[in-house]
Amino acid sequence: MKRFDGKVVVVTGGASGIGAATVDAFLAEGARVAVLDRAFKSARQKAVDAPVDVVCDVSQEGEVEAAFDGIVNRWGAVDVVVHGAATLGASAPFHEVSLATWRKYIDTNLTGSFLVSRAAANRMIAGGIEGRIILVGSVNSFAAEREAAPYAVSKGGVRLLTRAAAVDLARFGITVNMVAPGPITTPATAGNFESEATKALFSRVLPAGGPGQPQDVAAAILFLATKESRFITGTDIVVDGGMFAQILS
Question: At CA 126, angle to CA 122 and CA 132, rounded to 5?
Fold first, then answer.
């Protein structure tokens, strides 16, 4: 018997990168998986255990609610939600950030986290399910990089949203936690990590020696989704190869 046999798992931002690795990890453990993303590059194989793809912009309340209604109508429940959909990357120096750019990051990364978490919590409570909500933050939830204020602020908000939701949902047996990846090689980041200068930087700032893989983050997410994690809530797991543990000299 697999760890998630019969469980219904929703993964936002699951079309690529960390989200796709998370989808694969849950499928391998027997879960039924719904993937929410703004777009899918190609149709998946229609295997029995294939995930269900749902086009959804997580910053839009109506789309999020409709997506969760459809999942409950299809499978009868929502047991685990992994929210990874996000607008990534740097924008501009703080004093040059436009209001439109600010809103783009906040609407998707922070408001989207609220909308998805609230939709999940309401379905779990209605179904009497002691569920798991796992938000994907970032090392930028703790510290800022240059020219990335909207991203850092949005991810910092995700960290406190995790705590606030965990406090209110604990009485229902629902846990809420955050996974904070450091440098991870994905289709969106791979090109940035290939230069000799970046490799040299990583060898200095990452005790692990280089960036991680999406599967490294997925493994932490799976642990937080298990029944064994029932007493872990309102906290975060940093998956960064030891970067935050090191004082540079």
Answer: 60
Reported as half-sphere exposure (CB side, CA atoms, 13 A), residue 120 has a value of: 32
Q: Measured between alpha carbons, how far is 44 from 129 in angstroms, rounded to an integer?
A: 30
pTM for this prediction: 0.94
Q: Which domains does the chain have, with CATH numbers?
A: 8-241 (3.40.50.720)
| Contacting residues for 17 by C-beta, under 8 A, at least 6 apart | 84, 184, 186, 187, 188, 214
Please report, as a single letter, which amino acid is at residue 175: T
Q: What contacts 179, CB < 8 A, 6 or more positions away?
A: 134, 135, 136, 137, 217, 220, 221, 224, 236, 237, 239
Q: Stretch 21-26: mean pLDDT, rounded?
A: 97
d(CA 222, CA 173): 18
Do the bridges between strand 52-55 and strand 132-136 make them parallel or antiparallel, or are there none, so unpaired? Answer: unpaired
In the sheet where 52-55 sits, what is the strand order?
A: 52-55, 32-37, 8-12, 80-83, 132-136, 175-181, 236-239
Is the CA virtual torsion 31, 34, 37, 41 positive or negative? positive
Pair of tokens at residue 133: 């909500």
pLDDT in tens, 142-177: 999 899 999 999 999 999 999 999 999 999 999 999
Assigned token pair, 226: 């298990």
Catalytic residue (choose from 113, 151, 183, 221): 151
Catalytic annotation present for 105: no
